[in-house]
Amino acid sequence: MKRTDIVSMLSLADSFTIVNGVLGLFAMFLLLSGEMRWAFSFILLAVLADGLDGAVARRVGGSIGVYLDQFADMVSFCAVPLVFAYYAYDVSFTVAVEEVAFLAAAGLFLVCGMLHLVRYHVGEESYFVGITTPAAAIVVVTLSQLSVPVWAVAVSMFVMAVLMVAGLPYPKIRGWLYIPSVALLFLAVLFDAWETYLVLLAGVTIYAVAGPMYMLLREEAL
Q1: Do the domain assignments include residue 67?
Q2: Which of 40, 94, 104, 164 could make a disulfide contact with 116, Cβ separation 3.0–4.6 Å?
Q3: How many Cβ atoms from other residues are within 10 Å of residue 216's Cβ?
Q4: Which tens digit of pLDDT belongs to each residue from 4-51?
Q5: How far, in Å, CA of 122 to CA of 137, rounded?
Q6: Residue 1 domain-assigned?
Q7: Residue-range definition of the domain harbouring residue 112
């Protein structure tokens, strides 16, 4: 019987996927230590690592990335953003309307995030079906960092949950889209200012709204 060493199957691209998951874990540790700003930065760095694993895999290939990626994304972009928002607003399990709405939206976000990741890894499309979990995570943590009302975060989680499982096509961040995306993430990591958070949020909102329209127009042009 042939035995396979799982470590020997890892590729360079897989290492970025692992970094993504570890950054998500460290973001949660930072939250538990009360370091909101650092936790926010680590989540954004996890988004960058997630983008790099795909870029590297396209060039050098990957062995187990298709399986590893969904587990890292579950940590960094499904679970951690919800814990981030929960901590930011000091939510508790009470019968208050806002807190019940928050918890319900958080549960829906997690479930839809899991379904989106499964859908992506069993699909064969050259584009994303539903908005990506990193994009959804950015919306939730950025609104929380901006300290908008808790009901607004609950609404954002609900909207992102629906978009993650919607049958809408979204372009992959490649080519000319890659540079501005990375620039927005680095700005938010380097500068702790509401202006940079708004710019990042605006970028993701444009992607959420214009992404499906761009894909439909491109399909009609072909």
Answers
A1: yes
A2: 164
A3: 12
A4: 666 666 677 778 888 999 999 999 999 999 999 999 999 999 999 988
A5: 22
A6: no
A7: 7-221
